[in-house]
Amino acid sequence: MPFGAGWGAFVMGRFGVGGARRENGCVDPSERATIPPTFRVPEPGRRRDVVILGSTGSIGTQAVDVVKANPDRFRVTALAAGGGRVDLLAEQALELGVKAVAVAKAGAAEDLQLAFYAEAKRRGFERGEFAIPAISAGPDAVAQLAGTTDLPCDVVLNGITGSLGLASTIAALSAGHLLALANKESLIVGGPLVKRLAAPGQIVPVDSEHSALAQCLAAGDRTEVRRLVVTASGGPFRGRSRAELAGVTPEQALNHPTWDMGPVITINSATLVNKGLEVIEAHLLFDVPFDDIEVVVHPQSMIHSMVEFVDGTTFAHAGPPNMRLPIAYALGHPKRVPEAAPPVDWTKAQSWTFEPLDHEVFPAVRLAAEAGRRGRTVPAVYNAANEECVQAFLEHRLPFTGIVDTVARVVSEHETGEGPLTLDDVLRAETWARERARELTSAETAGVRGASG
Ligand SMILES: NC(=O)c1ccc[n+]([C@@H]2O[C@H](COP(=O)([O-])OP(=O)(O)OC[C@H]3O[C@@H](n4cnc5c(N)ncnc54)[C@H](OP(=O)(O)O)[C@@H]3O)[C@@H](O)[C@H]2O)c1
């Protein structure tokens, strides 16, 4: 393990198998029999079998690139996606020669089958020269693949977008696979449930900030850490006033200055909700109190995060913004993958700047920390309300500033209850938050229409 005692486990907890499977594909960790962990770090030096979830997205396609560039280190055995881009999925699957493919959309199975034949024809394959992978489709298909023990699998990369990645995170952990976790939402909404399932070292973060923090934390032990400093690019609207944010369009918000990502995380970066989620993620991964996690704006995105130690030393992780680096690090963990991404070019003059976050204009980070402190179902409510509001904004039904305002209102109205958190609590809270956010955003839409009509 490269991380010092106490930090080696990104997520501490117990791990078991069995338990009740729900209709939504999740196994409830609170109903799980407690048995000793079965997770083992895959042997270093042996080629790893990888299952990529969300393979057609921004993280997924970059993970495919990492695997293709390192055939001696990695082999993809299965792919999964939503089912929206079957042509790309078929292309990836035939190129990588995977054994199985899963899509969440039940109706996409036939389209995927046709896409396989079209792709095989495009590649000039004759009948009998190629094998179509096993196809599964439906709401539980992706999580079932994440938890597969029928296929060779050392690492599951969860690159699904949104909290619907929770079932797959739970399934991968339950099956004892190393989990390269890009889908931060599943950790945030699952919170203690996900932590309970994870054996020490079983979750390796893919988020560049948390990958950086984990590597910086290896420089000392827990008692020596004063605080975590999470960097933020500030998004496309850094430096604007709240009034200037009111009229921004989805097109402007989708234009991130330093990172090329999927639409939800790009909007979340513009509102700083993503940074709020990352603060909760850092708290959950590294067990650092919210008061000791700070966000600093660093527009060049060259420093991916920092750890300040008690003696006044600060360790920073640097590199040009490129998700292939943390993806490769997570897939190969604990070994580094040579040439995963270009390093900083020190022959060129450059300036890296840092500034405090304007919490008045971007209240999402404080709101997230508050949600994290309240704990239980509140982070799930923060995330679910935000997912609804982002959709409303992208569909021009909600102004940009309405996203965080609505999330704040939903969070403030939420009564979280007491007692040990169960999966049912989380799912009920999410459903409530989505419905409440939809009510509030449709009232806002009606108001906007009324005012303009
Ligand atoms: N992009 C980044 O640079 C970045 C950086 C750090 C963290 N992350 C995190 O990584 C995750 C993925 O982000 P992204 O930017 O890659 O998103 P994205 O580009 O929107 O891709 C999302 C992927 O999830 C798939 N998907 C959608 N619904 C699904 C379902 N029900 N079951 C299985 N797969 C489903 C999509 O498939 P279809 O193509 O079929 O819709 C697509 O492959 C998010 O949690 C994000 O916060 C991303």
Separation, N- and C-terminal Cα atoms = 63 Å
User: Which series of helices and strands comes N to C?
Assistant: EHEHEHEHEHEHHEHEHHHHEEEHEHHHH
The tally of helices reads 17
- What class do helices, strands and sheet pairing give? alpha/beta
In terms of DSSP E residues, the strand content is: 5-15%
Q: Ligands in the structure?
A: NADP nicotinamide-adenine-dinucleotide phosphate
User: What is the CATH fold-level name of the largest domain?
Assistant: Rna Polymerase Sigma Factor, Chain: A
Helical residue percent band: 40-55%
Spans of at least 5 consecutive residues whose pLDDT stays below 50 are: 1-24, 33-37
CATH superfamily of the largest domain: RNA polymerase sigma factor, region 2, helix turn helix motif
Number of strands: 12
Gross geometry: globular
* CATH architecture tag of the largest domain: Orthogonal Bundle
* CATH class call of the largest domain: Mainly Alpha
Biggest pleated-sheet summary: 7 strands, parallel
Strand order of the largest sheet: 4-3-2-1-5-6-7
What is the count of structural domains? 2
Rg from Cα: 22 Å
> Can you give the mean pLDDT?
91
Question: How would you explain this protein's 3D organization?
Answer:
By secondary structure, the chain is of the alpha/beta class. The chain has 2 domains: 40-206, NAD(P)-binding Rossmann-like Domain (Rossmann fold, 3-Layer(aba) Sandwich), CATH 3.40.50; 217-319 and 353-452, Orthogonal Bundle (Rna Polymerase Sigma Factor, Chain: A). It is 42% helix and 13% strand. It is built from 17 helices and 12 strands. The protein has helices at 58-69, 86-96, 108-122, 141-146, 166-174, 184-190, 192-197, 208-217, 242-245, 250-253, 263-271, 273-286, 324-332, 364-374, 378-394, 400-413, 423-452, and strands at residues 48-53, 74-81, 100-103, 134-137, 155-158, 178-181, 203-205, 225-232, 293-297, 303-309, 314-318, 355-356. The strands form 2 sheets. Strands 4-3-2-1-5-6-7 form a 7-stranded parallel beta sheet, sandwiched between helices. β1 (48-53), α1 and β2 (74-81) form a beta-alpha-beta unit. The longest helix is centred in the C-terminal third of the chain and has 30 residues, at 423-452. The site of NADP nicotinamide-adenine-dinucleotide phosphate has 31 residues, from α1, β2, α6 and α11.
